Amino acid sequence: MTRKEKSSFEEATGVTGKKVFGWVFLIFVVIILISSFYIIPAGKRGVLLTFGKPDMNAVGEGLHIKIPLVQQIVKISVQTQKYEASASAASQDLQIVTSVIATNYHLESSSVPGLYKDVGLDYATKVIMPMEQEVVKSVTARYTAEQLITQREDVRLEIRNILTERLVPRGIIVEEVSIVNFDFSPEFNKAIESKVVALQNKLKAQNDLERIKIEKEQVIAQAEGQAEAQRLQKLQLTPELVTMRALQVQEQAIEKWSGTLPLFVSGNNMPFIGNIGNLVNSSSI
User: Fold this and answer.
1) pLDDT at position 31, please?
2) Nearest to 176 by CA among 88, 81, 85
3) pLDDT grade for 27, boundaries at 50, 70 and 90
4) CB 96 within 8 A of CB 88
5) How many CA atoms lie within 13 Å of 67's alpha carbon, on the beta-carbon side?
6) Which of 52, 54, 224, 277 has the maximum number of C-beta atoms within 10 A of its C-beta?
7) Hey, which residues does 196 pair with through a beta bridge?
8) What phi and psi values does residue 97 have, to the nearest 5 degrees?
9) Can you point out the beta strands (E) in the chain?
10) Three-state DSSP state, 276
């Protein structure tokens, strides 16, 4: 565009080169101002890089200022995170065991810049995974396959304690370790199943034996009870007891007598009073 054409364009549109430059400069200033501020959200820390060199002081949550085009910020989470992976190892009795281990952890805030400088953002794969594999292998080798099942809580605690000790220098704080699963070879699983079945049969036999023993004791007790009852019954039928009961019956009859004499004597149809009179007269003569 010639100067004449440029002048014609400016006269037609009213837009001069100075105005365009002014708008461009204003937009540039606004971009610079906006890019001078950054926000670190809750649960994260910032690593401030100046020409790529990290500042060893972690930037906390909130609004901050940086130098545009010179500094940049890397945001790293310090919230609880989970890393889960499987690890194969040999037990003390040379059984191959595949363990699935879940590790809950978080980054120590002040260690974030150093961890970023030494490892970068892929610290889970570069630090946690190999350390977890090594710890699981070393702990698994101390137990037999059966002990890994029966002493599962002890195995978990040992893995957690060793893993915590190994990761603390890196600024990684282990919160908890969980054994999601133990997987054994098909041969071992079959052997365990057979052992469980045998144990169940043994318990059933013991329960049956105990039940038979109790039933036998009940029958014996019942027979002894019946014999004792018969013995007591025989003891109660002594001549002294028969005489005592007869006297008790007579005493009860006397207590119930109203004082009136009977009119006839049993076995003799003669009046009872007349007999008494004859007895009296006979005695008088």
Assistant:
1) 75
2) 81
3) confident
4) yes
5) 6
6) 54
7) none
8) -120, 130
9) 37-40, 44-50, 53-54, 62-65, 71-77, 81-90, 96-107, 172-183, 264-265, 268-271
10) helix
DSSP string, 184-213: --HHHHHHHHHHHHHHHHHHHHHHHHHHHH
Is residue 45 within 8 A of residue 73, CB to CB? The reply is no
Q: Output 231-237 pairs: Cβ under 8 A, ≥24 positions apart.
A: none
Give the pLDDT score at 279.
44
What is the C-alpha separation between 47 and 61, in angstroms, rounded?
12
Alpha-carbon distance of 275 to 264, in angstroms, equals 9
pLDDT digits (tens, 9 = 90+) for 233-246: 666 556 666 677 67
Structure-block tokens of residue 101: 């281990």
Q: Which parts of 81-185 fold into alpha helices (H)? A: 112-118, 123, 129-140, 145-150, 152-167
Q: How far apart are the first and last CA of the chain?
A: 191
**Could you give the 3-state DSSP secondary structure of residue 36?**
coil
Structure tokens at 241: 């007891």
Q: Are 112 and 45 in contact (CB under 8 A)?
A: yes
How buried is 134 (Cβ within 10 angstroms: 0-12 exposed, 13-18 middle, 19+ buried)? Answer: middle
Q: CB of 162 within 8 A of CB of 142? A: no
From residue 35, give the alpha-carbon distance in Å to each of 46, 55, 57, 70, 72: 16, 19, 21, 11, 9
